[in-house]
Amino acid sequence: TSWERCALGLPAFIVILAENQRSSGNAIFAAGASELVETGESLRSTLKLKLEKSIANTNTLKAMSKKAAVICDGAGVARVRQILSSFGITRE
Predict the structure, then answer these.
(1) Quick check: 33 and 27 in contact, CB under 8 A?
(2) 0.85 surpassed by pTM
(3) Which contacts (CB < 8 Å, 24+ apart) does range 31-35 have?
(4) Integer CA distances (angstroms), 35 to 5, 26, 72, 76, in order
(5) Among 31, 64, 91, 92, which is least packed, fewest CB within 10 Å?
(6) Is 85 exposed, middle or buried (0-12, 13-18, 19+ CB in 10 A)?
């Protein structure tokens, strides 16, 4: 869902629940397209605090939205189709 969200330009608060989510979650956070919320005893209060801060400053959400849209433009299918066409593979 991270890539779909980025293609739509939606800001997010990412909670990493499994180790296989860590690299993509950290990368999206490093790109400025999300907030990263660590799990633990204070998950609920940390998430609430980050949400309140973001709602109070809509510029933060707008910036995350723009950065998310840069990560994934949603045009991957068109690019794959173009590559396949260059090899003479077309839909019949």
Answers:
(1) no
(2) no
(3) 31/67, 31/70, 31/71, 32/63, 32/64, 32/67, 33/6, 33/64, 33/67, 33/68, 33/70, 33/71, 34/64, 34/68, 35/11, 35/64
(4) 13, 9, 17, 25
(5) 92
(6) exposed
